[in-house]
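Progress note, sequence design subtask.
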């Protein structure tokens, strides 16, 4: 069997590629229709105000140029081939050989339009790559009935799996010598060239399966397998590449000899236990020393590759699982109910553990941890209508899952799963704490809480203790809770695990017309949304409107000259922030020649305003500083995810048989499908797409996501 496909995709949607439109803060009156067609100068380049008279600058003309003229092409090829030989040795014994190959090829071309004043900062790159996988499997199968009540099936075999990825890439560097000439030889500096094998691994295995059936009512399944992985071999040939795993499952299906309640048509009970081994990525334990440059004493220096040392005793990972469940058909098969409980424990995970910088490395790769994954799954299918010309089936699924960290490496209580809690923008990471649940959202940029003290500097009880301390701007014309405190400790903002997942599917058929609908639900779990945070920061989303002026609820007042407010001027963007003034804070107001001060230290802004000691702060300044990367905190971008999505609607019309026959087709049908329709409910502000920016398991960050895109397809399905 052979199957080959080839495809070309040009200028695909790149999530986040045009995020400047959103995060930079275009004014609401920016005329997109005008500037999308008026962004070039008379010479065809990007206008610059430093030009020679032919250049006239337009806002973000370089962005329009890049978006409309950059090119990205991606050609993919896929070859899948399979061959097998089956040989029957005798009635109860047979032999099988099977080979599979899967070759994936990829070629890309990228052209970057010049946007500099001299039009020479263009770019050009080419790449080619191949991923080749092969599998060879040989097995011996034994199948017999030991007696009328007992049957036995046994399979024993060997398997070899191989994969290898190679690639090359070349691109210009430093711009072009000749403008708009897309050729590698046109590179101003030496081209960037890379290539080689990026991934190579082999796993050899022996395995066995045995299934016993008693009276077609009791079923026992036992499996055993041993793998040898090249990824667990050190460069000197040492290591522990072998790992054994097994599983056992037992199920019971009620027989006619057992009487069940009339409402139960059929009942099946099941239980299983399994252990599964796992290796790691190739070359991960094969790191060594690499040059680190020349030191100040002209002595060559070396360091660990990727600043990571590797334990000399890496072991395979292991996962232990138990499952208990049952399936019941109710009311003559009209209702299908399935329940499943599971608990997994993954131990000896191969993890990069952070170590102090004084050690000379950033992390060490070793085994550790015990993560428990536990949950329940419920499936219900209901046949509401079941007639020859009409049917309607409804399906429901509900899942609740929790991951718990039973232990990490001895002596370690926390582990960074994803992200940097102290970076300049998101400042959000997901962490695992020993004894806690998986995926806490943490930051080093939390609020500084107020703590009252006595004259001797000792902490005392006070109703304002724990409330965020405020910070001033423009002499307290603007006040906001500053978010660059607590840099020495991690602040937990939430947890990324959902409370539950669910779904509903409906399939309705009337004669030759069918309608299918699929809903998807997520309820609970926190997410950090940079789009929401910086949308507020720049004032480009609807959530930033409240308090902007009197029509949006802003407080109207005539200023007494507080801070840098103009004395006697009327403002209408007033807002009362929640926070406490630092101790010994004084607010200065009045005309320029008659300024007075009042002490508001230790008071909340609400109390000080109620007593007439301060004016409202300005909403625009408050929201800008509260959400800023320099003075804000990622707490302002943390939201709880709750959404109900209409994932798919499909309408199918089966052509009449006489029409299909005239078209020389069988079972022909027309299918109209719409996927990823708008959310029915979305807890994110301004209906921001909650899609995570990448698919890594521990990633809690939503940033630069593409708009929610609905796709529609029309197809025909038929047999010939």
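Output:
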């Amino acid at each position: 069997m052979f199957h080959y496909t080839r495809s070309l995709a040009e200028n695909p949607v790149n999530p986040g590629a045009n995020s400047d439109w959103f995060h930079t803060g275009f004014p609401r009156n920016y005329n997109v229709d005008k500037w999308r067609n008026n962004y070039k100068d008379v010479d065809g380049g990007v206008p610059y105000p430093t030009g020679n008279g032919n250049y006239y600058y337009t806002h973000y003309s370089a962005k329009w140029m890049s978006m409309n003229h950059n090119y990205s092409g991606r050609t993919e090829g896929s070859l899948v081939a399979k061959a097998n030989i089956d040989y029957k040795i005798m009635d109860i014994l047979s032999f099988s050989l099977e080979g599979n190959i899967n070759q994936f090829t990829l070629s890309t071309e990228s052209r970057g339009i010049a946007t500099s004043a001299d039009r020479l900062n263009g770019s050009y790159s080419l790449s080619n790559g191949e991923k080749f996988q092969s599998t060879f499997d040989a097995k011996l199968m034994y199948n017999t009935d030991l007696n009328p009540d007992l049957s036995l099936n046994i399979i024993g075999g060997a398997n070899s799996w191989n994969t290898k990825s190679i690639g090359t890439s070349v691109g210009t560097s430093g711009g072009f010598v000749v403008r708009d000439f897309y050729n590698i030889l046109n590179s101003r500096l030496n081209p960037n060239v890379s290539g080689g094998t990026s991934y190579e691994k082999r796993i050899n295995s022996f395995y066995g399966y045995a299934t016993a059936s008693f009276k077609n009512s009791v079923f026992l399944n036992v499996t055993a397998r041993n793998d040898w992985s090249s990824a667990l071999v050190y460069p000197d040939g040492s290591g522990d590449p072998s790992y054994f795993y097994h599983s056992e499952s037992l199920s019971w299906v009620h027989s006619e000899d057992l009487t069940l309640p009339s409402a139960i048509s059929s009942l099946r009970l099941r239980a299983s236990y399994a252990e599964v081994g796992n290796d790691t990525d190739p070359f991960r334990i094969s790191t060594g020393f690499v040059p680190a440059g020349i030191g100040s004493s002209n002595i060559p220096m070396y360091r660990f590759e990727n600043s990571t040392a590797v334990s000399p005793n890496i072991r395979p990972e292991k996962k232990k699982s138990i499952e208990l469940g049952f399936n019941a058909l109710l009311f003559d098969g009209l209702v299908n109910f399935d329940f499943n409980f599971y608990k997994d424990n993954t131990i000896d995970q191969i993890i990069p553990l952070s170590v102090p910088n004084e050690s000379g490395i950033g992390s060490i790769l070793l085994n550790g941890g015990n993560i428990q994954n536990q949950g329940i799954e419920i499936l219900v299918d209901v046949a509401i209508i079941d007639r020859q010309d009409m049917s309607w089936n409804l399906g429901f699924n509900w899942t609740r899952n929790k991951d718990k960290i039973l232990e990490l490496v001895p002596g370690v209580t926390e582990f960074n799963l994803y992200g940097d809690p102290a970076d300049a923008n998101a400042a959000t990471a997901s962490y695992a704490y020993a004894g806690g649940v998986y995926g806490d959202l943490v930051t080093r940029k939390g609020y500084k809480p107020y703590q009252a003290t006595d004259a001797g500097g000792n902490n005392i009880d006070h109703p304002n203790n724990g409330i965020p301390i405020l910070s001033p701007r423009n002499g307290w014309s603007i006040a906001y809770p500053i978010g660059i405190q607590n840099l020495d400790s991690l602040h937990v903002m939430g947890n990324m695990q959902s409370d539950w997942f669910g779904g509903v599917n409906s399939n309705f058929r009337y004669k030759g017309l069918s309608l299918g609908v699929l809903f998807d639900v997520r309820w609970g779990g926190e997410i950090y949304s940079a789009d929401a945070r910086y949308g507020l920061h720049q004032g480009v989303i609807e959530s930033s409107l409240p308090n902007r002026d009197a029509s949006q609820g802003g407080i109207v007042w005539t200023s007494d000259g507080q801070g840098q407010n103009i004395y006697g001027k009327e403002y209408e963007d007033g807002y009362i922030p929640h926070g406490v003034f630092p101790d010994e804070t004084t607010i200065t107001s009045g005309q320029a020649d008659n300024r007075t001060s009042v002490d508001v230290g230790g008071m909340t802004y609400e109390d000080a305003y109620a007593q007439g000691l301060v004016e409202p702060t300005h909403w625009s300044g408050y929201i800008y500083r509260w959400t800023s990367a320099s003075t804000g905190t990622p707490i302002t971008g943390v939201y709880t995810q709750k959404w109900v999505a209409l994932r798919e609607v499909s309408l199918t019309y089966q052509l009449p048989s006489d029409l299909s026959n005239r078209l020389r087709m069988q079972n022909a049908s027309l299918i109209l499908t719409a996927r990823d329709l708008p959310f029915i409910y979305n807890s994110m502000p301004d209906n921001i797409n909650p899609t995570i920016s990448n698919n890594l398991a521990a990633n809690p960050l939503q940033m630069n996501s593409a708009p929610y895109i609905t796709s529609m397809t029309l197809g025909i399905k038929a047999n010939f």
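DSSP finds seven helices and 34 strands in the chain. Work on this subtask will continue into the next period as scheduled.
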